[in-house]
């Protein structure tokens, strides 16, 4: 009789709990659909977008993206007026992670369905910001801002904390690939290289500042996370790593300079990602599993013709 290593058993159990916290209660079913549904995919096995989105550094990058995105007053007004971070933070995280999974790894038919669901949701998110300006979540200019903040954050986290950082050429390819999804959502003038991504962020800079809602969001995400006490110390490490990756001007706008000096910054981010990676497996292992499944599925489809 084979006796299972208790450490491995604990690692598997806790890792699965972390997965369900991020992917939501239907995460297992969604994962099966993503990887087992036959049909062509938008991105081939081994592509930069698959490498980046398979890595646990997306946890750090996702938090950085939320903080950075909040600095556009109209984008923040849409979130605050129609969902907010306090109302359903884990549901919001699950929807975002599910969207990334289907558009990065899923069958084209499912990826298109997810894009249409998001576009339909955006149709309902309209209103007036506290400064009197009207906002519309389907506005191509706002969609582009949300995209570049996300792409820059995922890439920054992967290059700083990832197991195998991308080469400059691969980083350009990641920007181009993530831009394909953004264009399908309605974004315009989408960057296709890291240089264009940097230029796009600079171009939005005059529009960005911290509103009361943005400051409340930062306080909630960093100081009042909806987690049990036992989970807050490791989350604080992850949050420190995310804040350390923000541009200096963004940390200043969100009043995070003093908070940053009291944390371990990049070292904390590295510890957090190492810990999560130990629980959930390396990016290479998880990406290769996905790619192996894709290759097997493609072989089955070819054989059946």
From TrEMBL:
Q: EC annotation?
A: 1.-.-.-
* Species this chain originates from: Demequina capsici
Traced from the root, the source organism's taxonomic lineage reads:
Bacteria, Bacillati, Actinomycetota, Actinomycetes, Micrococcales
Which Pfam families does the entry link to? MPAB_Lcp_cat (PF09995)
Query: What residue stretches are annotated with the ER-bound oxygenase mpaB/mpaB'/Rubber oxygenase catalytic domain?
Result: 50-263
Q: Which GO terms describe its molecular function?
A: oxidoreductase activity
Alphabetical keyword list:
Oxidoreductase
Official protein name in the record: Oxygenase MpaB family protein
Record carries keyword NAD: no
